[in-house]
Amino acid sequence: MISKRASEFTSFIVMDVMAKAEELERKGEHVIHLEVGEPDFPTPKVITEAAIAALQNNKTRYTHALGLLELREAICRFYFNEYGVSIIPDQILVSTGTSPALLFVMLALLDHDDEVIISNPRYPCYQNFIHAAGGKLKEIKTFPEEGFQYRPRDIEKSLSSKTKGIIINSPSNPTGIVMSPEQLRHIAQFEKQYIISDEIYHGLVYQGKAHSILEFTDKAFVINGFSKLYAMTGWRLGYCIFPKEFTSVMQRIHQNFMISANGFIQWAGIAALTKAADDVAAMRTIYDERRRYMLKRLSAMGFTIHVEPTGAFYVFADARRFCTDSYKEAFRIIEEVKVGVTPGIDFGSSGEGFLRFSYANSMANIEEGLNRLDRYLSKHY
Ligand code: PMP
């Protein structure tokens, strides 16, 4: 029999949309994918070349459980250069994506029934990592007019002796909104809780700059990885940075559950951090063009964009003028005009009435997808 815990894991609603898209594509339909949160660019050549060289040089063994020292040193330099923060290699765990790293953070941090604060809406996997480690969610409602950011007073009100952590995600999936230094400083003031900062979209910022939580507090876990910035989703490489007292436990957890991340892919990760800056800059410029275009088109169609998204590759558009049931609406859109969009309800009840559009797709596809959407809206509303 399936365990109670496992049966409570929620699924990604966007997968239902993708399954529908696949069904349509099998029938020969041309579906435009604006639902997928995955870079459309190939991985930069300097990175694939480093992986090939590593394979040819037989870098095919287990590595240190925390990750190759050379990669962890490169991550330390990266965080110093980007944010001016000093961390040491023993504060880093490299794993097969940020997803397992996040699970291991929860295992290291939570006792049974400990609570973690998450915002509503948020990235849908967070709740399952918390559940897997025996913890409980404390959801805090956030508001579109405030860029879906926590109100510190609401956090204060929901704290209890069981509250171990507060998850933040900037730039955010689904909103694309970047937290300001003031907002980060406010969150960092919660000294008894660990701040778990998902920084996977750092570097994909189109105005100003994202700040790391480590600029404001040491009592934090940072989650970061290579999937988004370096177009490396399928490589599975990510890491977390943790307070020094967690070194031994993170090492033990990883030794047992993963042994180590993939050896040759970690060498590719070093190339990403040290040699791919030009490739990243080129991708960022293109994302930004698409972002501006998408914002202009969606606003013209009557969607409300409460706060301009300046990071990641998402626009979380308020569609409440058109619909109240984002799930039904997303299905009607894909069935009628063959455009995949993610229903806002995927991210929690406060996302209802919103649709998430991803601009990790070519300009030609974005244009065609939005033309189809425009026709759909003119027909129905
Ligand atoms: N955090 C956020 C906010 C994400 O959007 C994703 C990927 N969709 C992840 C973490 C996981 O990334 P990965 O496991 O590929 O590193």
What's the quick description here?
With 381 residues, this protein is α/β, with parallel strands linked by helices.
Element pattern in H and E:
HHEHHEHEHEHEHEEEHHHEHEEEH
Range of helix content: 40-55%
Q: Do you know the CATH topology of the largest domain?
A: Aspartate Aminotransferase, domain 2
Largest sheet, order of strands side by side?
A: 2-8-7-6-5-3-4
Structural account:
By secondary structure, this protein is α/β, with parallel strands linked by helices. It has two domains: 4-42 and 278-380, Aspartate Aminotransferase, domain 1; 45-276, Aspartate Aminotransferase, domain 2. Helices cover 41% and strands 14% of the residues. Strands 2-8-7-6-5-3-4 form a seven-stranded mixed β-sheet, sandwiched between helices. The protein has a three-stranded antiparallel β-sheet with strand order 9-12-11. It is globular and about 60 Å long. Residues 37, 97-99, 123, 169, 173, 198, 200, 225, 227, 233, 238 line the site of 4'-deoxy-4'-aminopyridoxal-5'-phosphate.
SSE arrangement:
Blueprint: H1 4-7, H2 13-26, E1 32-33, H3 45-56, H4 69-83, E2 92-95, H5 98-109, E3 115-120, H6 126-132, E4 136-141, H7 152-158, E5 163-169, H8 181-188, E6 194-198, E7 220-225, E8 238-241, H9 247-257, H10 263-275, H11 277-301, E9 314-318, H12 326-337, E10 339-340, E11 342-343, E12 354-358, H13 363-380
Parallel strand pairs: 1-10, 3-4, 3-5, 5-6, 6-7
Antiparallel strand pairs: 2-8, 7-8, 9-12, 11-12
Helix pairs in contact: 2-12, 3-10, 4-10, 5-6, 5-9, 11-13
The protein binds 4'-deoxy-4'-aminopyridoxal-5'-phosphate (PMP).
